[in-house]
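User: Could you check the structure of this?
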Amino acid sequence: MKVFIATPTIANTMQVETALSIVNMVNELRNGGHGADWFNYNGTFVTRARHILASQFLACTDFTHLLFLGSDNGVPNGAIPRLLQTGQEVIGIACPLRHFEAARFAEAAR
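Assistant: Sure, the predicted structure tokens are below.
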């Protein structure tokens, strides 16, 4: 497994929490025997940046998974390896708020 972590940015900025999440994800995946690399596209239009990043993923045949992470989102340690272990073809999460309470979401999902 090799994960293409994609983050579109505006004005080349991202939250510190996002940057730390990316570093932790890459380390967790690599320590688990998987590959992971982070890619960024900076632009004014986030939708265009997502399309460009998706095209780059499709052009890189050695990647098996695509993960989009917003420049203002963090991910709890261990979350991405656990999601990938489910074996699901598509996994998504709606993040309508700037603050995500993972424990509350997990409880509601039960």
